[in-house]
Specification:
By secondary structure, this protein is α+β, with helices and mostly antiparallel strands. The protein contains 13 helices and 24 strands. Strand 3 and strand 4 form a beta hairpin. The structure holds 2-acetamido-2-deoxy-beta-D-glucopyranose (NAG) (5 copies). One 2-acetamido-2-deoxy-beta-D-glucopyranose (NAG) binds next to loops.
Length: 498
Amino acid sequence: MGLIAVLVTALCVLTLLDSPPQLPDPPADPPPTPGGVPPGTRSIVAYSWARRLALDYRPSKECDGNGTYGTTLNTFKLADEKWLETIPGQLFLYSAHLDLRVAGYPSLRVIGVKRGPLPTSALFCTVWYEEEDRGRAVSVEALVSTIWLEEWGETVDSYAGILVGCQLPPDAAIEPSKVYVGLEPCHQNASHSLAIKKEASSRGEAGETRRRQFTLCIKGLDFDEDISGKIVAFVELHRILGAELFYFYVLNVHENVLRVLRLYERSNVIRWFNLTLPGDLPNEKVSRRRFLSENIWIKRRMELIPYNHCFYDNLHRSEFVVPIDIDEAIVPSRRKSWHELLLDERIKLGRGFKDFASYAVRNAYFFPELQARNRSDYDTSGDDNSTDIPADFNYLMDTVRTACISPEGDSVKSFVSTRRALTVHNHYALTALNPSTRRAHHFDPEDVLKHHHRACDETHLDCDALMEDVRIDESALRYSNELRRRMRVVFADLRTFA
Ligand SMILES: *[C@@H]1O[C@H](CO)[C@@H](O)[C@H](O)[C@H]1NC(C)=O
Ligand SMILES: *[C@@H]1O[C@H](CO)[C@@H](O)[C@H](O)[C@H]1NC(C)=O
Ligand SMILES: *[C@@H]1O[C@H](CO)[C@@H](O)[C@H](O)[C@H]1NC(C)=O
Ligand SMILES: *[C@@H]1O[C@H](CO)[C@@H](O)[C@H](O)[C@H]1NC(C)=O
Ligand SMILES: *[C@@H]1O[C@H](CO)[C@@H](O)[C@H](O)[C@H]1NC(C)=O
């Protein structure tokens, strides 16, 4: 058994060797200390975090507001999909979020994009509070980190996502309403700033009182063809599995896909956002698509903006966010739902569960080329022949996969903990809030696999070798009847309402 596992892993590594810009695995975790946890480790860990908080702490200073704030406060609304440019050609802000996770250290997290090196002098956050009629502004030095790992290569002259931390005064009784990040402390123009979503009030919204368990994040869709059937299948399968809310980002989609997004938006199943690229990057459909396909590293870095927006927008509202693509599904093999899967893992890891910022599911390819061989399996297994749902959903019900399971860290998709992660990558948590938290724990592939339904890409994979050894995997078929039932309801609604 052990030998087979080694051979299978070796095969996978070999087949993946010549993939061009394959992201490396997260650095290996330090080997476990023999004889269990040495005495004192816990307190050292706690100390190192306290020390980091202390090092990161920046005092804030009151700005003299002379009325400008109060008059402009209610007049400005930041248009969605627009970036707030605060250093011309160099710094573009996307969104701002309140982070109340560390007791006594409230902060703002501003997501943005920088181009090239930022000025060596400090950047400052100007934070506005709305107090009855008048406003109040404070200024604090900004802490900037790049949403990327240095070992993944040069971002020096290019565009890269950044996370800006703005430490808030711990005693502020009210939530800040706007923020600006730029070169000058105490920025004067409150109209030129990002609005901050209210945490306190949103908790009172209908349907928002309970913390969701799973929220899915889907990066900018860019498809001319009508993939509405696929989207419905993707959403409904993942709702069966346990996803409660979906954040979709849109670059360009077919009108029928917009109808699906709008229908789900009305029932609070989907939130969606039009997405643009910042700065002088192209935003006309065709040139943007060409640009992104020719600049794969910029594409990858820009994809992290919606993922991190989705993460921070759900920070206090969802326990996990899951960055995922519409040709993927996270399917447990023994359990029926993600909730049960995570519960098992909590029991298995005990207190160690909380040592990780994300829980990664390993990848298996369900190449469509393989399915033809076994297509008859499920085409006849359906309990009805209704033609009122498109056949698109079938792709998620495929049953033939490569025997090879991608190595840990490669092509995984993760449940990212909103309590423990600081930044998110499409595969796992990129950095953790507490520096002693580890990036990712991998599930046993016997328990769950990420089904990847995509054609084999000869330039990245050794397709012949991968397809030589296949397995029948019917784990997704268990959901087939319920999926059909749900899809029928959605398509009936679409015909009626949209
Ligand atoms: C606003 O504040 C600045 C600096 O604090 C001050 O120089 C200026 O005179 C004030 N303007 C008004 C209209 O009060
Ligand atoms: C303040 O910012 C707004 C929005 O960017 C801009 O239209 C306006 O001209 C700015 N006002 C001043 C005084 O700079
Ligand atoms: C996205 O853009 C389209 C077309 O301009 C618009 O109809 C739609 O309302 C926008 N969506 C959102 C969520 O703002
Ligand atoms: C197709 O699936 C059946 C079981 O459902 C299996 O017996 C058969 O070997 C499969 N065919 C291929 C080519 O894998
Ligand atoms: C589905 O179609 C097949 C052949 O067209 C037919 O034999 C079968 O009875 C149908 N099943 C149902 C449930 O209508």
